[in-house]
Structure formats: structure tokens, C-alpha cells
Amino acid sequence: MTQYIIRRFLQMIPITLGILTLVFSLIHLIPGDPALQIAGENARPEDVAAVRKALGLDKPLWTQYVDYLGNVAHGDFGRSFSTNESVAQQIRQRYPATLELAFGSMLVALIVAFPLGIVSAIWRNSWIDNLARFFALIGVSMPSFWFGPLLIIAFAIDLPWFPVSGRDQGLRSLVLPAVTMGLALSAILTRMIRVSLAEELTQLYVTTAVAKGVGRVRAIFRHALKNALIPVITVLALQFGSLLTGAIITEQIFSWPGLGRLLITSISSRDYPQVQASILVIALTYILMNFIADLFYGVVDPRIKLE
Amino acid sequence: MKNFKRLLHNFAFTAGLTLTVLLVVVALAAPLISPYDPDVQDTARRLEGPSAQHLLGLDDLGRDVASRIIWGARVSLRVGFSVVFLAASIGIALGAISGYYGGTVDTIIMRITDILLAFPGILLAIALVAVLGPSINNVILALATIGWVGYARLVRGQVLKVREMEYVTAARALGARSPRVIVLHVLPNVINPVIVMATLGLAGAILSEAALSFLGLGVQPPTPSWGAMLTEGRRYLGLANHLAIYPGIAIMAAVMGLNFLGDGLIDALDPKYRKEM
């Protein structure tokens, strides 16, 4: 197991380095002279020179790269162009809001997917199963940037139960964004739980348990469901990473003050250090979550050989 | 052909095909069927709801929403087809080279795909558009940059299998050069799963374009784009809900149609592919 963790961890190093390189090169992909682009077409030459110096663009590329890696390793992402505050500070402030949204939507997905998935696995091809499948289809096809506004119309404007946007009303603020982001995940999970549980229910150990006098309900919940959960947990962990990118859109719909919104506002204000840092933090969290999902997979199911 | 006839009895496939054909026809016939010029403003009647004259109402500048949705189909399809064409061309070429030659070339290409796959797709697209600047061409470029990876992996895997087949060995024994072997003997055998991937990729590209335009990073005004229309709609929620409702229906119908079609094609063209997914 330890060997597996170490090997899996070592695999992460080149990928992390690749992502760092990619994020580093972003600023060099700006067409023309990045310093001129950032300072603005009409900027005075000395302002352009100041920008170039502030970004270290006057140094050789290799030095810039090494400096960049060093700074990131120290958690130093530079200063924001627009506010002159430390970018790391901004990220620290915004990160919890994004995590809150991600966990909230995961909770929504679980609350919806569990009953629906279990019921449709037990009564396969019944009307409720068809309903669940229809829901799953809608769930994966409905873009969040459409579903979100529809929720706002229904539950913030027509029925003023929840705020239209923002994060200042505690749990009430979280509901609509979490439902928006949780919809697709709940659709995926419902399908997973249905398929996985339906397969377990055909296994001999379930038949044996029922034959030995264990009630059907107990056989389903105590025996089959436990095994059915293994792939579900893995998918859940893998999807957490996608939730972070989904947050970029959801945060925009609901003006949720998280990392995604920070990224979009810094793009429109051409605040490149902030853009780079937000992208890097989202990408690294994503990789880390996938790493954890992989480890988890090995831990929950001892049958899986960790090659 | 037999497969295709059987497919037409499949409800999802037929629905998908119908929606897709409808989408293409609407896009092609936009100048003929659009009731109004999508850019003409009637500011006196801005935000007006649906009426007999304007079936889907007017937007914040008094432009006809139905006409903008019809013209928006062109943007969606243009981005979708361009992205799929670019991504598939690059992916097929690199995947074939990678699988056929192996060795260092293979290692380099595969490590690049590893990194791109580890990076959440839409995030990379956002990053690229952020530095290149928002425009329809940059959206296409960004989406193709993340899109080719899937094709490369798919084609490489298939090429590895086909490479060992006897007819390939025979072609080489007869003196065929590598490019000829790849193009004439290897690629025709991998084309079916690529068609399936391209159909599903078209749906993905349309959705991503809408997402980027919704974030203000895609198609710029006044060009009508479904995603950008939703951004405008979001501003007038409660005042003019029709602005947020109808473009969303268009996106969902297009994406669902293509997904159904792709799903049906899996059964028709390449039943093995379903297992691999």
C-alpha cells in the first residue's frame, strides 16, 4: 500500500510540473508585447517598462521560469495589478467560499441520488425507474448557466424563498447555487448507484442472505448496498475536481464570491498575476482530489490490487 | 445499412437525428426563415415579452429573440464543426504517428496528453481565451487545443492493435512506405470510433462555446450567441424572463440531440466502443 501511495505520488510530480509550466507560459502567449498589452496601448514607455520589470519580463526566460517556480513554492503569487494586494491573500479569502459551494452541491447530489438510485435499482423498469432515468438524462444535459437562472426565477423571484445572489445570508444563500451545481452530479450518481446496486442484487451472497432468513430490506441495505458503494465513492471523489471547475460558472450566475468569480473578474480587468494564480490553485486542487480518489479506491476495496 | 434501419426504430436515435437535422437546417436557412434582422433594434419596445409579432419577445436592445436564436445556431455550429475538424485532424495525425512509430515520439506525445488530461478542460480553455483575447476564433483555437487529446488517445490505441494485423505486415512487405500504410490501411480501420467521438465532441464544443460566451469570454456582441444571450438574460431576471428561458432551450435541444445521435451511432458503428467507454 505504502509503495502504491509513493508511486502514485511520484506520478503526480511531472504532471504538476507540466501544469506549472503551462500556467507560467500563459503570460507569454499574450499576442504582441505582454507588457504593452497589460499597460494598455496608450501607456507611456516608462509605464510599460515598469510593468515589464514588475512581472520580471525583462529577465531571460529561463530565469523567469525558475523565479516563478521558487515563488510558487513559497506561496508567493505576486501582487494584484488592480488592487495591489497580495494575490495569495485574495486566494485565501476566496477559497473557502468555493469549497463551501463544492461541498454543498455534493450534499445536494447525495440527498437526491441515494433514494432515487436505490429505488430504481430495486424496482427496475418500473415507472419510478423510468422517471429516475429521465431525470438523469435532463440532469446531464441541462447546462448550469441555464438551470441556475431558471431556479432564480422560480425560487428567488416568483417565490422569494432564497436570495437572488451573494453569500451573505448563510445557508439560505447556499441553497440555489448548490442545487444548480449539484444537478449534474446527482444525475451521474443516480445512474451509478442504480447500475452498481442492481448488479450487486444479482449476486449469490444476496440470495444466500435472503435464503438464510435475513429480511429483503436488510439484505439490500446491509449487504448489497455496502458493496455497491465502492464505485460510487470513487466517482464522487473524482467528480469533486469537476465541481471546482463547475464553480467558475455557478459563481458567476449567483455572484458567489469564490475563486471562480475571482478568476473571471481578474480576466476582464487583465489582472494576469491573479489569473495565473486562480488557474493554478484550481488545477492543483483538481489533481490533488483525483490523487485522493485513487487512493480511496484502493482503501475501500481490498479486492482491488494496487499495481 | 441494416444497422441504420434498425436504429431508426430506436426512439432516442431518431429523436437525436431529428433534432440535429433541425439544427443544421435552421443554421443554414437562417437568412430565409429568420423573421427579423437579428441586429435591428426597436428600443422603444425593449424587453417586451412574447407576442404574435415577436414570438419569443424582444431583448434588452429591442432585438427579436427568435431571430437571434436562429442566427445563433450558425455560431454554435460554426464553432462546433471547426473545433471538431481541428481537434480530430490534429488528434488523428498525432495519435497515428504516436501509435505507429512508438518510441520517443510516442512518449513525448503521450506525456503531453497526460498533462492536458490532468488539467480540467474548460479551465484550460478559459486560460487560453483569457490571454489570447475573447473572439470566436480564439474560442475555436482554445477548444481544439483541449479537444485533440481524446482523438489522439483513441487513434493511438486502435493503431497499436491494427499495426500488428497481417494485412499491414503484408502491405509493408510489398514495399509500402509508412505514411501510405497509415493512411490507406490503418486509418480506415479506426474511423468508426472517431465518428462517434466527433458527434459527441460536437455537442461538447457547442456547450463549451455557450459556457465561454456566458462568461463573456466567447463570441462578442453584437454577434448572436446562445451563451451570450443567457448572460444578457441573467441581468433581466424577473423583468424579462423570456430572455433567459428560450436561448437555454435552444442549447439544451442541440446538445441533447447530438448526444442521442452519438449514443445511437455507438450501437450502429462500433458496439465495442461502448465497453471501452
Polypeptide structure, described:
The complex is a heterodimer of chains A (307) and B (277). Chain A has twelve helices and no strands. Chain A is an all-alpha fold. In chain A, helix 5 packs across helix 8, helix 8 packs antiparallel against helix 10 and helix 10 runs parallel beside helix 11. The termini of chain A are close together. Helix content of chain A is 77%, strand content 0%. Chain A is globular. In chain A, 39% of the residues are buried. With 277 residues, chain B is an all-alpha fold. In chain B, 75% of the residues lie in helices and 0% in strands. In chain B, helix 6 crosses helix 7, helix 8 runs antiparallel to helix 9 and helix 10 packs antiparallel against helix 12. At the A-B interface, helix 1, helix 7, helix 10, helix 11 and helix 12 of A face helix 5, helix 6, helix 10, helix 11 and helix 12 of B.
